Amino acid sequence: MKKYQYVIFDIDNTLLDFSRSEYYALQKVFATYGVVFNEKTFNQYKEINHDLWDQLEDGKISKDVVLKERFKRFFLANNIVVDGVLVDKQYRSFLEERNDVMDGAIDLLRELKSNGYTVFAGTNGVGQTQRKRLASAGLSDLFDALYISEEVGFEKPDVRFFDYIFNDARIKDLSTVVMIGDSLSSDIEGAKRVGIDSIWFSNGSETSDRKYTYKVDLIKDVLKFV
Description:
This is Noncanonical pyrimidine nucleotidase, YjjG family. The chain has 2 domains: 6-16 and 101-224, HAD superfamily/HAD-like (Rossmann fold, 3-Layer(aba) Sandwich), CATH 3.40.50.1000; 19-95, Orthogonal Bundle (DNA polymerase, domain 1), CATH 1.10.150.
């Protein structure tokens, strides 16, 4: 007998290789505005972006602020004034050119679907961008539904993001649901807050003291626990 019926997958760096796609898109953005892409500028942007996303997950700012401010602050730090909203749109258009898939992701989704699981995507992100990336990677048809924070109205780890899924899918028994993702602060923490099991895709990271139900180093190993 299956342990779970409903499987919720994070997208970025769980099923799609966001890090690789981001690296490509940032190179294009930096070149557009004459900033040298190297380890220093890459890390500078990452620090600014990470700080804003942390504030978003803590409920201190909205996603609109993240999308408006991250490139504005980065380029200002490099003495360039830009329209943050415009640059973010350019950046997302570059992201949409990529379809980098994590090793084993497609086979895993197909295996789950063929065995009768209900498979959802539960991701923080911009609706248009996430849907285009999933379609380009050939993953869209492997989900029963896509739940994207911009469309849902709440971000993981907010319990209202998960409650939206439960209500929309008419899920009553939360013991039949598992959340799978790479982010301890949004995927694993969100699952903990709402009281469902979680599988942390560590992708080689060290064990964390954050509470998760299971841990896998390879995405294909999810099959061992569902």
